[in-house]
Amino acid sequence: MSPEQSLSLNSIEARSPYELRLNQSIGMQESAVTKALKTGEMGFLHSFTTGSTVDGPGVRVVGWTAGCQWRCLYCHNPDTWNMTNGLPVTIQRAAEELRKYRQGLRVMSGGFTLSGGEPLMQDRFAVRLFTAAKAMGIHTAIETNGALGDRLSDEELQKIDLVMLGIKTWGNEKHRQLTGKEHGPTLDFARRLAAQHKPVWVRFVLVPGLTDDAEDIAQIAKFAAQLGNVERVEVLPFHQMGRFKWRNLGLDYKLEDVKPPSLEQVESACKIFRGEGLNAL
Ligand code: SF4
User: Fold this and answer.
1) Theoretical Cys-Cys bridge with 147: which of 35, 185, 199, 227, CB 3.0 to 4.6 Å?
2) What is the pTM of this model?
C-alpha cells in the first residue's frame, strides 16, 4: 500500500488519543520509512487532537506520534509503541493541519504539543514541525521521556518553548523494571535543558504500589529542584483508560487490578515535591 493510499483510509484527526489505531502504515516499503525518518519529510502519527487543556499551557493542538522505545507497565497508549500503527503524514499536511488552528491557539494562549509514543523517535519530523509552528507564531511543547534528547542540537532545541519531561521513577533497576530501559539518558537530558535554562514541566505518574515509594519520590523531587528550570511538577494519577488497548493488542497487562490513587495519595506526593520548593499540582 502506498502512503497516499493509507492517507485516504484514516482521518488525521481523532476525538482522543484513546482511540485504538492500528496498522495505519502497514505495507509501506521499508526504504520509504527509512527515508521518512532520515529526512522528516513524513511522520507517522496516531492522530491530531484539539482542545486539550492538559498537555501544556492554554488550549493545545496535540500531535500524537507513533513509535516508542520504552515499554512502561502503565502506558495507556501501547498502540503508539509500534511505528507501523502510525498514519503516514507529510510534513506539509501536518503543517497545514496546524495552520487551521493558528488564530484560535493565539487567542486562547495555547499552542502545539508533540506527544506520543515518543516524539523523538521521529526527531527529524519533530524538528521540521516545530520549525513550521514557530514560523506561524505558535507556542511549542514536547512531551518526551527524554532518552533521545541528544538527537536534537542546541539550535533545534530553540524551536521548542517547553519540554514536558516524564520522570518515571528513581533508581536504575526500578526504572528498568518499569520502563524496560535505564534512566540515565533522561537525567542527562534534564541536566542539559537546565544548562540552557529551558522551561521544563516534570510529569510523574503516580501508580499505587509501583511508583508511590516516598523515598523515590523524594529523590526525584531533589533532582528536579536542583535543576533550577523546572516550572512545574505534574503528578498524574494512574488510570485504567488504556486497559482496553492492552487487551485488544493481546499484551500482558500487569496492572489489571491496580486502582487509581486517592486524592490523599496524590496530595502526599505533591507535598514531597513542594517540600523541595517545587510548584507541584
Ligand atoms: S514512554 Fe510514554 S509512550 Fe513510551 S511506553 Fe512509556 S508511557 Fe508509553
Assistant:
1) 185
2) 0.94
